[in-house]
Design a protein that fits this description.
The chain is built from 6 helices and 5 strands, in the order αβαβαβαββαα.
């Protein structure tokens, strides 16, 4: 591959890293074509962009970023797929779903989610438990709505009790 081509690929990776707030590094080495197709289909359904990259080019793209991703250098071995997502927990749940179907791969190498690095396959449960912005907003609204609903219910019960007493 020519140096100009490599420069273009590194620039494209840099654009993807800037475009998406969350990304996952996943080990896909040894996956057969059926497993790979199933993973790509699941990515498409989940609005996750999957890109298989050369580790050296990914390292150059990460080094060009403002954040310090040096902790990920140890993960850049073997065949690596990058999963880009707008929502932090979607790729983690997708990986968990795929591996629960008696597949050994894909395996989480590392992730950058909610402005934090998660290194190692043991972090998958933590990443699955992350709540998205919309989930957090729904929790806050439910917490605020609950006391109001209790007051309205009590007032309604009181009105019904007074009406039946008359």
């Amino acid at each position: 591959m020519r140096k100009e081509d490599k420069t273009v690929i590194v620039a494209q990776l840099g654009e993807l890293l800037a475009q998406y707030p969350h990304f996952y590094l996943v080990d896909v080495e040894g996956m057969n074509s059926a497993e790979t197709s199933a993973m790509r289909r699941k990515c498409f359904q989940s609005n996750v962009k999957m890109v298989v990259v050369k580790n050296t080019m990914l390292k150059k793209a990460l080094d060009a970023r403002e954040n310090d991703f040096s902790e990920l250098d140890a993960c850049l071995k073997g065949t690596t797929a990058l999963l880009f997502s707008e929502t932090a927990n979607v790729p983690a749940r997708m990986i968990k779903d795929l591996t629960s179907k008696k597949q050994e791969k894909p395996v989480l190498k590392a992730a950058y989610a909610e402005e934090a690095l998660y290194v190692g396959a043991d972090k998958l449960a933590s990443l699955c438990a992350l709540k998205s912005k919309n989930e957090l907003i729904a929790d806050v609204i439910a917490a605020l709505e609950s006391p109001i609903m209790n007051v309205l219910s009590a007032l309604e019960n009181r009105e019904n009790a007074e009406a039946s007493a008359e």
